[in-house]
Amino acid sequence: QVRLVESGGGLVQPGSSLTLSCTASGFAVGENAVGWFRQSPGKEREGVACISRVESGIWRAHFAKSRFTISRQNANNTVYLQMNDLRPDDTAVYYCAARLWEYCSAFDSQYDHWGQGTQVTVSS
Length: 124
Known about the structure:
This protein has no helices and 11 strands. It has 124 residues and is an all-beta fold.
């Protein structure tokens, strides 16, 4: 049974940094693609970043390219999303998603398992 558990969210001020963690069980993050998505109230869920089985295969949304970094540690089966220079419009519930395929996708419909989400609030 696949389980994804996100952690690391919280309330931060604009310009701050946060690192989200997604720890998997029943699923090898080093053998498949793992993505981060986010959803704000009243908006559709959108892709943030993804890391494929081959680490050079990283995808990031346009808003994430200069501020967010996705990485993983196979030893503890965890994928991280480091977010720098956070802005109020980064406020959302952030979800980790696992794809039973080695390549990334920007589309949430192509992911097979989801975590429960972690709230990130950026406010002064």
